[in-house]
Design brief:
alpha+beta; two-stranded antiparallel ribbon; eleven-stranded antiparallel sheet; 279 residues
């Protein structure tokens, strides 16, 4: 009896499917109401309303920042109202999976960072993990040399990718990510696919904040932010702008931090390496 009930139930079910008739082999068609709804993945600390846990996102970013190759580009510029550059730091680091790296750095402005001495200055740094070499251009000349990192951190790949690119002494990757998303409320404005990777695009504004680390800046107002985060938590783009004052003068601060060629960056020896090693 139970088998008969099952047969009847099966026949009734098939009869209710569109496209089914007698002995045909037509494939049943699912109506939109029956189709499964895909689940959208979000990075840690993010949901459909925006960033809800900046600390969780910062931790995920720091974890994903380690182990893969990538190119990291960072720029921070402070300009007076007339457009004159007060301070500028531009950094580009190519990091291979074996942690060899090639970093190019430039500074500018009367109050620019003293990382390379008095601005304007530029330099290139290369290392394979055992040899560290530098080409420094300043005061109209270029010097080449090798060096030993003073504390096994300064001058290494972590120094460039986790500290200098995120603010130098005033910040590091995790702290910067946490502060940015704590200070500026965000909303999800879309999704994009970049080189085969889906990123969640975020945007936000804030009239003012006191939670934002801004070296040399006295006040911080009118912040705007755009960011892109992959579903694993790597913040692949942070671009923000705000108005501020320095010693009573209005300034505009702009910063961009961007990851490129994640998983496909390689590092070659620079042409000037032999010259630096020979010094």
């Amino acid at each position: 009896m139970r088998g008969g009930i099952l047969v009847v139930a099966l026949v009734a079910l098939l009869a209710g499917c569109s496209g089914f008739s007698g002995g045909s082999e037509a494939t049943p068609t699912l109506t939109p109401g029956n189709a499964p709804t895909p689940t959208k993945a979000y990075p840690p600390g993010v949901d459909d309303s925006g960033v809800v846990a900046p600390g969780a996102l910062a931790e995920a970013h720091t974890a994903r920042d380690d182990g893969r190759s990538y190119t990291l580009v960072s720029n921070r510029t402070v300009r007076y109202a007339n457009g004159t550059v007060r301070s500028d730091l531009s950094v580009r680091i190519e990091l291979a999976t074996n942690r060899s790296f090639f970093a190019t750095v430039s500074t500018d402005g009367a109050h620019g960072p003293l990382l390379l001495g008095e601005p304007p200055a530029s330099a290139a740094y290369w290392s394979n993990g055992s040899t560290y070499a530098r080409a420094l251009t300043r005061d109209g000349g270029t010097t080449y040399n090798t060096f030993t990192p003073p504390d096994q951190y300064t001058g290494t790949w972590r120094y460039w990718t986790q500290t200098v690119a995120f603010g130098g002494r005033s910040g590091y990757s995790g702290r910067t990510i946490r502060e940015v998303f704590t200070s500026i409320p965000t909303e999800v404005v879309g999704r994009e696919t970049r080189t085969g990777t889906t990123v969640v695009v975020l945007a936000g504004t804030a009239a003012e904040t006191t939670d934002f680390t801004a070296p040399e800046i006295d006040t911080v107002e009118n912040l705007s932010l755009r960011a892109a985060v992959d579903t694993e938590g790597l913040v692949r783009l942070v671009r923000y702008r705000f108005d501020g004052t320095v010693d009573g003068e209005p300034v505009v601060v702009e910063r961009t931090i961007r990851y490129e060629d994640v998983g496909s960056t390689s590092v070659e020896k620079p042409q000037w390496l032999d010259r630096a090693v020979g010094q």
